[in-house]
Here is the input.
Amino acid sequence: MIEISASNRLGLVAIAMLLACPALCGCASDQPYVWAQQSKTAADWEPSGPIRTGDRIYVLVRGQDQFSGEFEVRADGSYVQPIVGAIRVAGKTPREASELIKTRLRGILERPQVEVAALSPRTPTVSVVGQVTEPGRFEITSDESVLSALARAKGLTIWADRDGIYVIRRYPEIVRVRFRYADLTGGQAKSVGFRLRDGDIVVVE
Here is the structure.
């Protein structure tokens, strides 16, 4: 029987991972995406992220003070709307929550007009994974770029596909936006102007 030292075993594992990487990356690249240059402008995206448990929201029902007020989103994702009861809003954007509350109020009010605002949302975070030096989840500002998130992850590894940088966004619908590193560093308008949102996942193949 041939014995393999611990160091050699580690080397073989590393080689296997490198050989597997192109196949894995190829599978990921087969998923639908839109290039950053063809994506929506910043003004087209939902202006704020989804409501989360622990957030405080303000619900304004125009002309109806008894229905309006400041509420906390509970651990089950709902808040208690006066008269109506619990309404689950976690995971919805303020715009989507407004529509949901409006629907629930239609049996009580004739033409409810509802607006929802997040009063104290938690610090937004994004995840950076794949071929970066230090993958992880990072807190971001409300106006942070893809290049800034890559810098937080200490940049690309030598194995990174510089044309295979993606942002996966899950609201208001799932979308996958692709970037070239040269566009990010070279000032291509839509690539540089793309702003991350809470919950985005940056993937480097």
About this structure: Residues 6-29 form the longest helix (24 residues).
